[in-house]
Write a structure and sequence with these properties.
This protein is an all-alpha fold and 300 residues long. It has helices spanning 3-13, 15-31, 42-66, 68-74, 87-106, 116-133, 141-158, 165-168, 173-186, 195-218, 222-245, 249-261, 263-273, 277-284, 286-296. It has a single domain (9-296), classed as Orthogonal Bundle (Tetracycline Repressor, domain 2). The protein starts with a helix and ends with a helix.
Length: 300
């Protein structure tokens, strides 16, 4: 494989976005309280990280597979319509990534596809394919479906300690709301958007911030969580407000990019809200990695 093709496959995976998916897993691990034990095992953390890389990477690869004909008109620079990567090769690559993700998740506890982590991984793979092929063309189901993928990814991180899901599983609703908002915004990237849609996304963003602060207050961690949520707000709202004032495609694209990358800060905020400020800082360090990759590879 030559260097150009390798770069093409990496572009298909949306590497900057994959870093945000890793932050979902780390936030879930923090919410589960896994690191509070004196003898926590790094192996399940590594397996869940590999799982989300495979699942997210495979999902976005199939997004480009199903969009190949449309991209020939709207985004001809992408690897498949440009001819750099064949559609068949992309399908094989995407399938291999999804299978890797399911396999890694299945090894977290008792090995097998029907362990909790394995079932969640299968759910993520199926939800991503449903989005790629069908629901993304629907104004309501598309954003909801994409949000569900992220919510399941957070649950996948929490599955490292399955007993906490009954108490804290509700938190997975928050990334559903947040990612649904980003997906709503993204519909205007090419041809421009509507101010009403952007205002709706701003309200959903505010609801996400409020939920993090309420969870932090409940656990007496409001002070440090407020710092992380302030950073989160500073990243998502300025580009969104610019897009609201002038809902043109390029400004909406910047708002989408900021929203996607800010997932890392949101996940750091969750870690801080559950009493792990140093782990939250470690998650935050993923942001410069994602920003660097975003300069090298497209985010959307």
């Amino acid at each position: 494989m030559n260097a150009l093709k390798l770069i093409g496959f990496l572009r298909l995976m949306r590497l900057a976005n994959i870093v945000t998916a890793v932050s979902d897993i780390l936030a879930g691990i923090a919410v589960a309280g896994y690191l509070s034990g004196p003898e926590w095992d790094p192996v399940p953390i590594a397996l869940l990280t590999i799982a989300t890389i495979g699942l997210y990477g495979g999902g976005v690869v199939f997004n480009d597979v199903f969009d190949a004909e449309l991209d020939r008109l709207e985004r001809p620079e992408r690897p498949i319509p440009s001819g750099l990567i064949s559609k068949r090769a992309a399908m094989v690559f995407g399938a291999a990534l999804l299978l890797l993700g399911i396999l890694a998740a299945s090894l977290v506890h008792e090995p097998g596809p029907f362990s909790l982590s394995g079932l969640l991984a299968i759910g993520i793979a199926l939800a991503s394919l449903v989005y790629d092929k069908w629901s993304k063309h629907h104004s309501f189901l598309g954003p909801l479906n994409m949000g569900i993928c992220r919510g399941l990814n957070l649950l996948l991180g929490m599955s490292i300690a399955p007993q906490v899901l009954e108490q804290y599983g509700w938190i997975s609703i928050v990334p559903v709301i947040y990612v649904a908002a980003i997906t709503m915004i993204s519909r205007g990237e090419v041809h421009g958007g509507k101010q009403t849609t952007l205002y709706g996304a701003a309200l959903l963003y505010a609801a996400v911030i409020l939920s993090i602060l309420l969870a932090a207050a409940n656990r007496q961690a409001l002070g440090i969580a407020a710092v992380f949520t302030a950073l989160f707000a500073l990243m998502i709202f300025p580009p969104l407000l610019k897009a609201i004032r002038h809902p043109a495609g390029p400004l909406i694209g910047k708002a989408v990019k900021a929203g996607v990358l800010a997932l890392i800060i949101m996940n750091a905020a969750w870690a801080s809200a559950f009493g792990f400020p140093y782990f939250a800082l470690a998650i935050l360090l993923l942001l410069p990695v994602s920003l660097l990759l975003a300069k090298l590879f497209a985010v959307t």
